[in-house]
Amino acid sequence: MTNRSKTPPEKRYTIGHGAFARISAIEGIQITAAMTADFNEFERQGLSAEERRKVIARKYAKVR
Question: Residues 1, 56: contact at Cβ < 8 Å?
Fold first, then answer.
């Protein structure tokens, strides 16, 4: 996966898990226990953002 953002890295902002959960709740999206376990495992393993995206895509992507 390539970084398609035209915003320079020093201008980007990454939110944490807690903030993401609060924003998702406002939008009506519930983070499941399985998702929370995944996020905790990512932290435990020290996965990079790219590695996290790959794991999530493999697990949740719909095959067409």
Answer: no
For tokens 């226990």, the residue is 33
Q: What is the CA radius of gyration of the chain?
A: 13
- pLDDT band (50, 70, 90) for residue 3: low
Residue found under tokens 């999206």: 29
Q: Which helix (H) or strand (E) holds 50?
A: helix 49-60
The model's pTM: 0.59
pLDDT (0 to 100) of residue 30? 85
pLDDT at 53 over 70: yes
Work out the angle at residue 11's Cα, subtended by the Cα atoms of residues 43 and 22, and round it to the nearest 5 degrees. Answer: 50
- DSSP 8-class letter at 46: T
